[in-house]
Amino acid sequence: MGKTFWGPEKPQPGMEEKAEEELWIQYRKKRDPQIRETFIKQYAPLVKYVAGKVAVGMPHNVEFDDLVGFGVFGLLDAIDKFDPDKNVKFKTYAVTRIRGAIFDELRSIDWVPRSVRQKTREVEDAIGTLEAQLGRTATDQEIARSMGMNEGEFLKTMQRISSTSVLSLNDVWFSGDENDKISIGDSIESPASLNPDVIVEKEEIRRVIVAAINDLPEKEKKILVLYYYEDLTLKEIGQVLEVTESRVSQLHTKAILRLRSKLTNIRKGIV
């Protein structure tokens, strides 16, 4: 899995990479609008690429051009906040910001049916309560039982949630003021193996998030890394893990719900 799927753009030669590094250093110091414009033009195709990935599986009423428009805000945010000293490639950082901006806007226009939002909250609450009681990851059967369902009904519920709800790792934790926000997605590094256990900075909040990710069942953890860092589509992940695309979608949704419920419990001091 050494290959990263970054779309049509080819890796730049070493000399060009060096020149770009120097541009980033200059931009960080001077905030030159011309350098910013250069970056916008250079990475604009990345917005369309990410929007295309997000568009897969979206309802027909969600327009591709709208997703691109939402994603542009993420690119601008990435350019303004990127820190070349943190040893993360700009493309890796930008993809997370672009995808996050698209998801944020989709949530704000509120196209998800109220009944689905309600059911999503019910599942998240059930997972949080149960895993706080058990002190470990709850199985599908245990979650279903706690919700008064059989396992088949629970899987159907998860399928409905995962096919219509926008859930992502763009949820943030605040460790102080507005400038200290850290997204869950930022806490998964691109690893040598499929283990999101590398910490970029030794902040307590990041440690907590990484620990929560490492507590996930192995398959759910792999899906997060393949989706957010290897940038595979759900279909491609299904081929890697030899399961259906709809099953990958369910597992992705369940992983996000587990993380959110666990982090909510930690915030409240329950665990």
Describe this entry's structure for a reader.
With 271 residues, the chain is mainly alpha-helical. The protein has helices spanning 14-30, 33-55, 64-81, 90-109, 114-134, 140-146, 151-164, 204-214, 218-228, 234-241, 245-268; strands at residues 172-174, 181-183. A hairpin with a 6-residue loop joins β1 (172-174) and β2. Residues 1-13, 172-180 and 190-202 have low confidence and may be disordered.
Number of separate strands: 2
Global Rg: 19 Å
Helix content: 55-70%
Strand content: under 5%
Q: Oligomeric form of this entry?
A: single chain
Order of helices and strands: HHHHHHHEEHHHH
Main sheet: strands, sense, barrel: 2 strands, antiparallel
Tell me, what's the shape? globular
Low-confidence stretches: 1-13, 172-180, 190-202
Q: Give the integer mean of the pLDDT values.
A: 78
Read across the widest sheet, the strand sequence of neighbours is 1-2
Q: Could you tell me how far the N terminus lies from the C terminus, measured between alpha carbons in angstroms?
A: 35 Å
Structural class determined from secondary elements: mainly alpha
Number of helices: 11
Short overview:
The chain is mainly alpha-helical and 271 residues long. The protein has helices spanning 14-30, 33-55, 64-81, 90-109, 114-134, 140-146, 151-164, 204-214, 218-228, 234-241, 245-268; strands at residues 172-174, 181-183. The protein has a two-stranded antiparallel sheet.
